[in-house]
Every structure is written in structure tokens, then in C-alpha cells.
Write a structure and sequence with these properties.
Helix content is about 5%, strand content about 35%. By secondary structure, it is mostly beta strands. The N and C termini lie far apart (about 115 Å). The chain contains one helix and nine strands. Strand 3 and strand 4 form a beta hairpin. The strands form three sheets. The chain has a four-stranded antiparallel beta sheet, with no helix packed on it. It has a three-stranded antiparallel beta sheet with strand order 3-4-5, with no helix packed on it. A two-stranded antiparallel sheet has the order 1-2. It has a domain of about 80 residues: SH3 type barrels, CATH 2.30.30.
């Protein structure tokens, strides 16, 4: 009777510290790599449209943008209460500290209701303050 020696080529498997057998790993060589370079005056394309970072170089362009006149806002009502202050600005109820966006000439500008006082509302955009008086009829 003839006996044949069967030679199997089995890849060498490694054993991890837990005793489980891990699959062989092959080296991967990259043929093409991608890169992304953002210029100083460009907007990051991965940010949502109209969003600006609070403390980044891209935010200075928005603050240095056009001055928003108080006539862009209509304050129709102010409610002063010891526990809370509210104002209706451009038809929406806003409280102190609330942030909102103003769309002007195709751009969205982020503003914050800094203070609601008797007869006026003070809005903040960057370091700029916009004082909007209550519109009386």
C-alpha cells in the first residue's frame, strides 16, 4: 500500500493574550491618498450651512461683515416680570440669552438677546450691540 504525504500550506495564525486565535493580517498598501487643505479665508465644507464657530478665525469674517441696522428688527411687545423677561422680536417670542439667526442678503447672522429692558431690546453680535426700540403705534 502506498502512502502519500499530504502537505497543506496553512497560514500562520497568531494567538492573542486571551487565547483566541486571530485571523492572519495582511499588510495593506495604499496606492492613493487623499488630502484636504483649507485656506485661511475659506469656510470649512464639513460645517452646516450658515454655521460659524464661536472662537475661530472664520468667525471674524462674520463679525467684520456688514453692520446690521436696528431697522432690521421689529420689537412689537415686551413683558417684564421679576422671574423672566420676554420680547416679541420679528414675530417670535424671545427671552434673554436666547440665540437666533437673521437672514439678510443671502447670509445668516447669529445674534443673541443680551438684555430686555423697558422700551428697548439690546441684541449682541460678536462684540457689537444693537439697540432696538419698542415700536409703538
Amino acid at each position: 500500500m502506498k502512502r502519500f504525504l499530504l502537505l497543506l500550506l496553512v497560514p500562520v495564525l497568531s494567538v492573542n493574550p486571551r487565547g483566541a486565535i486571530a485571523a492572519p493580517t495582511a499588510k495593506v498598501e495604499l496606492k492613493h491618498t487623499s488630502s484636504f487643505a483649507l485656506q485661511a479665508d475659506e469656510r470649512n465644507p464639513f460645517w452646516p450651512i450658515g454655521w460659524k464657530p464661536a472662537n475661530a478665525a472664520g468667525a471674524t469674517a462674520e463679525v467684520a461683515g456688514p453692520t446690521i441696522p436696528p431697522s432690521s428688527f421689529v420689537v412689537s411687545s415686551i413683558m417684564l416680570d421679576p422671574s423672566a423677561r420676554f420680547a416679541i422680536i420679528n414675530g417670535k417670542v424671545m427671552g434673554e440669552g436666547q440665540q437666533f439667526g437673521l437672514q439678510m442678503s443671502g447670509q445668516v447672522y447669529q445674534l443673541t438677546v443680551k438684555s430686555i429692558q423697558d422700551g428697548r431690546v439690546i441684541l449682541a453680535r460678536g462684540g457689537e450691540e444693537i439697540i432696538v426700540p419698542l415700536r409703538r403705534r
